## 1
Amino acid sequence: MPRITLGLVAHDDKKADMAAFAATHAAILGALALVATGTTGARIMERCPGLQVTRLKSGPLGGDQQLGAMIAEGRLDALIFFIDPLSPHPHDVDVKALTRLAVVYDIPMALNRATAERLIRSLAG
Ligand SMILES: O=C(CO)COP(=O)(O)O
């Protein structure tokens, strides 16, 4: 059976939280194909050297749009995106486009840790 592909993204103030989340669930994540925006992916691999993460461009430079394209092409099965709702983002339109496509294509999407904790359990083999 093909591996599930999971997208991982975190805004700057949520990156430590994402790294901790990845460390907690490294065993589950290790069985998935992981794709992340540039800086998020770097932080995850720094914290969890055993995890293989395909890194796209950084979010503000097109990484969110790359993930959106993967969704549109049927190449992303689920998305965990720790958004920071308390900070402005220059690429807010890209963030909106990504989350919109996740809804359009009805892929499971967690935008905060509480939901991600539930979603990740559903992805465990
Ligand atoms: O900006 C982001 C999501 O909108 C995340 O991008 P980075 O992981 O490159 O910081």
Note: The pocket of 1,3-dihydroxyacetonephosphate is lined by residues 9, 11, 37-40, 58-60, 63-64, 95 (CB under 6 Å).
## 2
Amino acid sequence: MTASPTLVLASGSPRRLALLEQIGIVPDHLAPTDVDETPMDGEAPNRLAQRLAQMKAEEALERTRADKTIGPAHILAADTVVALGRRVLPKAEGIAEAEACLSALSGRGHRVFTGVCLITPKERVRLRTVETRVKFKRLSRAEIDFYLASGEWHGKAGGYAIQGLAAIFVSKLIGSYTNVVGLPLFETAALLTGDGFPVAQDRSPTAPEVPSEDAPAAQPNPA
Ligand SMILES: Cc1cn([C@H]2C[C@H](O)[C@@H](COP(=O)(O)OP(=O)(O)OP(=O)(O)O)O2)c(=O)[nH]c1=O
């Protein structure tokens, strides 16, 4: 009987955890990171998303190596960037920043890139960057004020969250929806299965025959 592989999610984002849970994956450990997300001069948005995803995974790898209780693990990290042309919009931390993002996005198309990095138990680095095109309707002053009052923009790339109220601003989306929320599930599943990590299969060696819908959700441990 082979042991169930270990998964470390290098993220403090509740969205990423929820997206993984949506496809039946509960990480064994959470390792939120604290990398400098400032773009380099002239860095293209897709390159930025990929570089930051890799930095997050590598920081979590260092921590995992230092934690003798974990052992070799799959380490998964992601970074989401909202871009207007080559311009990277900030992760809105204040209301003025959020307002500037919404005004810039109003009536225009933009691109959302999520870089995904998987470091395998043999410490091989696998990367994918996924692009989604999103178009916003033209926003009225009242719509912007309504959205700012919701606070949903806080900590979100480009100052909006498509999974909440901002859904009513999206007139068109081409590509992966889950990529915009923070983790493209199709591509993430492909990365994991490509390295032998079971997706859409039971991971536990002695699983109950019939999973109960009432069973409490498993909780990952902080790494
Ligand atoms: C555009 C958009 C972004 N976001 C979120 C996803 C990310 O959490 C965030 C972008 O910031 P990230 O730096 O990608 O992630 P994070 O700092 O929240 O989490 P961590 O680095 O610990 O994994 O914006 C949404 O939730 N919905 C959206 O529609």
Note: The chain has one domain: 7-206.
